[in-house]
Protein backbone atom coordinates (compact mmCIF):
# COMPACT_ATOMS: atom_id res chain seq x y z
CA UNK A 1 0.00 0.00 0.00
CA UNK A 2 1.30 3.44 -0.93
CA UNK A 3 0.87 6.25 1.59
CA UNK A 4 0.63 9.53 -0.32
CA UNK A 5 1.00 12.91 1.39
CA UNK A 6 -0.53 15.61 -0.76
CA UNK A 7 -0.27 19.35 -0.46
CA UNK A 8 1.30 19.83 2.97
CA UNK A 9 -0.97 22.37 4.69
CA UNK A 10 0.72 25.23 6.45
CA UNK A 11 -0.80 27.08 9.39
CA UNK A 12 -0.24 30.55 8.02
CA UNK A 13 -3.17 31.67 5.88
CA UNK A 14 -1.06 32.85 2.93
CA UNK A 15 0.10 29.25 2.46
CA UNK A 16 -3.39 27.77 2.61
CA UNK A 17 -4.03 27.62 -1.12
CA UNK A 18 -1.32 25.61 -2.86
CA UNK A 19 0.26 26.90 -6.02
CA UNK A 20 -0.85 25.74 -9.46
CA UNK A 21 2.42 23.77 -9.65
CA UNK A 22 1.62 22.06 -6.36
CA UNK A 23 -1.88 21.13 -7.47
CA UNK A 24 -0.55 19.82 -10.79
CA UNK A 25 2.09 17.74 -8.97
CA UNK A 26 -0.54 16.29 -6.62
CA UNK A 27 -2.88 15.36 -9.45
CA UNK A 28 0.02 13.81 -11.38
CA UNK A 29 0.96 11.59 -8.41
CA UNK A 30 -2.65 10.49 -7.99
CA UNK A 31 -2.78 9.56 -11.68
CA UNK A 32 0.56 7.70 -11.63
CA UNK A 33 -0.50 5.53 -8.70
CA UNK A 34 -4.20 5.26 -9.55
CA UNK A 35 -3.92 1.53 -10.27
CA UNK A 36 -2.37 0.79 -6.86
CA UNK A 37 -3.80 0.68 -3.37
CA UNK A 38 -3.11 4.01 -1.71
CA UNK A 39 -4.08 6.13 1.23
CA UNK A 40 -4.07 9.90 0.74
CA UNK A 41 -2.80 11.68 3.85
CA UNK A 42 -2.47 15.31 4.85
CA UNK A 43 -0.14 16.87 7.38
CA UNK A 44 -1.33 20.17 8.81
CA UNK A 45 1.50 22.35 10.08
CA UNK A 46 -0.04 23.82 13.22
CA UNK A 47 3.20 23.56 15.20
CA UNK A 48 5.29 26.28 13.62
CA UNK A 49 6.38 29.00 16.03
CA UNK A 50 4.08 31.42 14.25
CA UNK A 51 0.42 31.87 15.06
CA UNK A 52 -1.64 29.33 13.15
CA UNK A 53 -4.73 30.49 11.31
CA UNK A 54 -5.36 27.15 9.64
CA UNK A 55 -8.90 25.87 9.53
CA UNK A 56 -8.83 22.24 8.44
CA UNK A 57 -12.36 22.41 6.99
CA UNK A 58 -11.15 25.11 4.55
CA UNK A 59 -8.39 22.83 3.39
CA UNK A 60 -10.76 19.88 3.01
CA UNK A 61 -13.09 22.10 0.98
CA UNK A 62 -10.19 23.00 -1.33
CA UNK A 63 -9.40 19.31 -1.85
CA UNK A 64 -13.07 18.56 -2.52
CA UNK A 65 -13.11 21.35 -5.13
CA UNK A 66 -10.20 19.55 -6.82
CA UNK A 67 -12.00 16.17 -6.58
CA UNK A 68 -9.25 14.87 -4.29
CA UNK A 69 -10.38 12.54 -1.54
CA UNK A 70 -8.18 12.18 1.50
CA UNK A 71 -8.56 9.48 4.12
CA UNK A 72 -6.29 10.51 6.97
CA UNK A 73 -4.86 13.75 8.30
CA UNK A 74 -2.75 14.68 11.29
CA UNK A 75 -1.59 17.93 12.76
CA UNK A 76 2.12 18.38 13.37
CA UNK A 77 1.48 19.28 17.00
CA UNK A 78 0.14 15.75 17.68
CA UNK A 79 3.44 14.28 16.48
CA UNK A 80 5.33 15.87 19.40
CA UNK A 81 4.13 13.05 21.69
CA UNK A 82 6.29 10.65 19.65
CA UNK A 83 9.56 12.60 20.03
CA UNK A 84 10.79 10.63 23.07
CA UNK A 85 10.09 7.16 21.65
CA UNK A 86 11.52 8.14 18.24
CA UNK A 87 14.75 9.53 19.68
CA UNK A 88 15.17 6.40 21.81
CA UNK A 89 14.70 4.24 18.71
CA UNK A 90 17.35 5.99 16.62
CA UNK A 91 19.97 4.91 19.14
CA UNK A 92 22.42 7.64 18.15
CA UNK A 93 23.35 9.77 21.16
CA UNK A 94 24.92 12.49 19.02
CA UNK A 95 21.81 12.96 16.88
CA UNK A 96 19.50 12.71 19.89
CA UNK A 97 21.54 15.44 21.58
CA UNK A 98 21.31 17.65 18.46
CA UNK A 99 17.51 17.37 18.47
CA UNK A 100 17.24 18.03 22.21
CA UNK A 101 19.58 21.04 21.95
CA UNK A 102 17.48 22.40 19.07
CA UNK A 103 14.41 22.26 21.32
CA UNK A 104 16.24 23.76 24.32
CA UNK A 105 17.46 26.68 22.23
CA UNK A 106 14.21 27.43 20.35
CA UNK A 107 11.40 26.02 22.48
CA UNK A 108 10.02 23.82 19.70
CA UNK A 109 11.14 20.76 17.75
CA UNK A 110 12.50 21.04 14.25
CA UNK A 111 10.49 20.23 11.14
CA UNK A 112 12.92 17.49 10.13
CA UNK A 113 12.38 15.56 13.36
CA UNK A 114 8.58 15.84 13.11
CA UNK A 115 8.71 14.85 9.44
CA UNK A 116 10.82 11.76 10.28
CA UNK A 117 8.25 10.85 12.95
CA UNK A 118 5.41 11.31 10.42
CA UNK A 119 7.22 8.94 8.05
CA UNK A 120 7.89 6.39 10.81
CA UNK A 121 4.18 6.40 11.71
CA UNK A 122 3.12 5.97 8.08
CA UNK A 123 5.62 3.10 7.65
CA UNK A 124 4.45 1.40 10.84
CA UNK A 125 7.81 1.82 12.58
CA UNK A 126 6.08 3.76 15.36
CA UNK A 127 2.73 2.67 16.77
CA UNK A 128 0.06 5.16 15.68
CA UNK A 129 -2.51 4.04 18.27
CA UNK A 130 -2.55 7.36 20.18
CA UNK A 131 -2.76 9.28 16.91
CA UNK A 132 -5.72 7.10 15.88
CA UNK A 133 -7.57 7.71 19.15
CA UNK A 134 -7.55 11.48 18.57
CA UNK A 135 -8.47 11.24 14.91
CA UNK A 136 -11.69 12.43 13.31
CA UNK A 137 -10.65 11.07 9.92
CA UNK A 138 -12.69 8.98 7.50
CA UNK A 139 -10.40 5.98 8.11
CA UNK A 140 -7.47 4.93 10.29
CA UNK A 141 -3.88 5.53 9.29
CA UNK A 142 -2.74 2.48 7.37
CA UNK A 143 0.81 1.21 7.23
CA UNK A 144 2.40 1.89 3.88
CA UNK A 145 5.13 -0.11 2.21
CA UNK A 146 6.10 3.03 0.31
CA UNK A 147 5.63 6.75 0.95
CA UNK A 148 5.13 9.36 -1.75
CA UNK A 149 5.17 13.01 -0.69
CA UNK A 150 4.24 16.03 -2.79
CA UNK A 151 6.09 19.03 -1.39
CA UNK A 152 7.33 22.49 -2.37
CA UNK A 153 11.03 22.68 -3.24
CA UNK A 154 11.50 24.88 -0.17
CA UNK A 155 11.13 21.67 1.92
CA UNK A 156 14.13 19.91 0.32
CA UNK A 157 16.62 20.55 3.17
CA UNK A 158 14.07 19.52 5.79
CA UNK A 159 13.42 16.32 3.85
CA UNK A 160 17.12 15.46 3.60
CA UNK A 161 17.51 15.62 7.38
CA UNK A 162 14.24 13.70 7.95
CA UNK A 163 15.44 10.91 5.63
CA UNK A 164 18.78 10.81 7.46
CA UNK A 165 16.92 10.36 10.78
CA UNK A 166 14.76 7.65 9.21
CA UNK A 167 17.90 5.81 8.08
CA UNK A 168 19.12 5.79 11.69
CA UNK A 169 16.13 3.52 12.36
CA UNK A 170 17.54 1.10 9.79
CA UNK A 171 15.08 2.13 7.07
CA UNK A 172 16.71 2.68 3.68
CA UNK A 173 14.79 5.62 2.30
CA UNK A 174 15.73 5.05 -1.34
CA UNK A 175 13.18 2.24 -1.62
CA UNK A 176 10.67 3.54 0.94
CA UNK A 177 10.27 7.27 0.33
CA UNK A 178 9.76 9.21 -2.88
CA UNK A 179 9.63 12.99 -2.60
CA UNK A 180 8.04 14.82 -5.52
CA UNK A 181 9.16 18.44 -5.30
CA UNK A 182 7.53 21.23 -7.27
Quick overview:
The protein contains 9 helices and 6 strands.
Give your account of this protein's structure.
This protein has 182 residues and is an alpha/beta fold. It has a single domain (2-181), classed as HUPs (Rossmann fold, 3-Layer(aba) Sandwich), CATH 3.40.50. 46% of the residues lie in helices and 16% in strands. It contains 9 helices and 6 strands. It has helices at residues 20-32, 56-65, 76-79, 83-90, 93-106, 111-122, 129-133, 156-168, 173-176; strands spanning 2-5, 9-10, 38-45, 72-75, 146-151, 177-181. Strands 1, 2, 3, 4, 5 and 6 form a 6-stranded parallel beta sheet that branches. Helix 6 (111-122) crosses helix 8. The longest helix is centred in the middle third of the chain and has 14 residues, at 93-106. The radius of gyration is 16 Å and the shape is globular. It starts with a strand and ends with a strand.
* Assembly status: single chain
Number of domains: 1
Name the helicity range: 40-55%
Structural class: alpha/beta
Shape: globular
Amino acid sequence: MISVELLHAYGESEHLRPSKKGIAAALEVLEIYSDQEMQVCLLVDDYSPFKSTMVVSDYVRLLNDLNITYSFWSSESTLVQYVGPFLEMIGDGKEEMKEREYFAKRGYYGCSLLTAIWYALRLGVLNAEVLQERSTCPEALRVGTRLVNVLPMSCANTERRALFLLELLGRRHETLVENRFY
